[in-house]
From TrEMBL:
<dbReference type="GO" id="GO:0140359">
    <property type="term" value="F:ABC-type transporter activity"/>
</dbReference>
<dbReference type="InterPro" id="IPR003593">
    <property type="entry name" value="AAA+_ATPase"/>
</dbReference>
<keyword id="KW-0547">Nucleotide-binding</keyword>
<keyword id="KW-1003">Cell membrane</keyword>
<keyword id="KW-0762">Sugar transport</keyword>
<dbReference type="GO" id="GO:0008643">
    <property type="term" value="P:carbohydrate transport"/>
</dbReference>
<comment type="similarity">
    <text>Belongs to the ABC transporter superfamily.</text>
</comment>
<dbReference type="GO" id="GO:0016887">
    <property type="term" value="F:ATP hydrolysis activity"/>
</dbReference>
<dbReference type="GO" id="GO:0005524">
    <property type="term" value="F:ATP binding"/>
</dbReference>
<dbReference type="InterPro" id="IPR040582">
    <property type="entry name" value="OB_MalK-like"/>
</dbReference>
<keyword id="KW-0997">Cell inner membrane</keyword>
<dbReference type="InterPro" id="IPR012340">
    <property type="entry name" value="NA-bd_OB-fold"/>
</dbReference>
<dbReference type="InterPro" id="IPR015855">
    <property type="entry name" value="ABC_transpr_MalK-like"/>
</dbReference>
<keyword id="KW-0472">Membrane</keyword>
<dbReference type="InterPro" id="IPR027417">
    <property type="entry name" value="P-loop_NTPase"/>
</dbReference>
<keyword id="KW-0067">ATP-binding</keyword>
<dbReference type="Pfam" id="PF17912">
    <property type="entry name" value="OB_MalK"/>
</dbReference>
Amino acid sequence: MADVSLKKVGKTYENASANTIEDLSLDIRSGEFVVLVGPSGCGKSTTLRMLAGLEELSEGEIWIANRRVDELEPRDRNIAMVFQNYALYPHMTVAQNMSFGLRLAGMDKAEIRRRVEEAAKLLDIAPLLDRRPKQLSGGQRQRVAMGRAMVRDPAVFLFDEPLSNLDAKLRGQMRAEIRRLHKRLKATTVYVTHDQVEAMTLADRVVVLNKGKIEQQGTPQELYERPATRFVAGFIGSPTMNFLPAKVVTESTRPALRIGEATIPVPAHKAETVLQRVGQDIEIGLRPEHFLVDGPADLSATIDMAELLGPTTLVHFTLAGMTCSAMLPPELAAPEGEVQSLRIAFDRMSIFDPKTGHAL
Ligand SMILES: Nc1ncnc2c1ncn2[C@@H]1O[C@H](COP(=O)(O)OP(=O)(O)OP(=O)(O)O)[C@@H](O)[C@H]1O
Ligand SMILES: [Mg+2]
């Protein structure tokens, strides 16, 4: 399976005022599952389409398995792409849809049948091979689209939001299935989504795009625990991270943070960083699970709203003028209108420069 390299890739669409993709370099290891995430319009589909050969590059190069491919036709790149809308031919059966590309390429009939049957078995759609797309559910259509990609035995799989047309339950099932398939096939995969749960659960590595540039890349855990910027911090994680304005002060010669009414010590590993900013404003980032209800409280807040999610309760309150949410054990969450004492897991908080948005 192939290594994929994007080298200083740029894309400017005709009539566009700004570059859609700028100086994008990315190396993907053979067998790796890379997920591209980012807000709508950040250039995820454009990047995939350039990889597939459906869109020309304005600058840079693309290499697959030590071969430069950006000048090659899509069919010569040994890549298969699965689209959000499946793009199945309505007048063909499932088997015909899956085998279409192979038949065009003039592959031996027996080999085509072998590949279609193997993929159908893996995807659990063998009984559907004679049906037409309109006789299938959304999830089944998605499987056929994946099967059509698999039979080509490509060096690289590209997925563009393949699950976004499915309902939440089916999305969860298909997500697990894609993970299972990847474990089995070990195919190099680039997967685009704006669903950060998909990104976190599927990826070996997540690449966060913002306005056509890589904002940060790393394992899901790295991005979640150590976001490099406020943008990544706010984008990864659901419910989203809480951002609070704070001022660095000193309290008996040790740095502390003033957040609203509360003054709290700075965790040791951040002390040096913030010591240079005494008297300055910073921004801290706390995830909903960084508020705890055991041990001595750091602050208290009146609960504006409590949402019972089942295993946890999400409470909303106002702190330093900002709306915050905390994920608490249901039996310890205060009801609406009552005061909740909260301890903050300061060792896990993020600190950002409010001007640049960079983590400190
Ligand atoms: N053919 C085109 N001509 C001109 N501009 C385009 C073209 N295709 C995309 N764009 C612009 O390029 C930018 C990136 O588009 P792209 O489709 O790559 O975004 P995306 O990250 O996939 O977004 P989404 O999450 O909404 O699918 C957008 O501003 C879009 O309007
Ligand atoms: Mg897109």
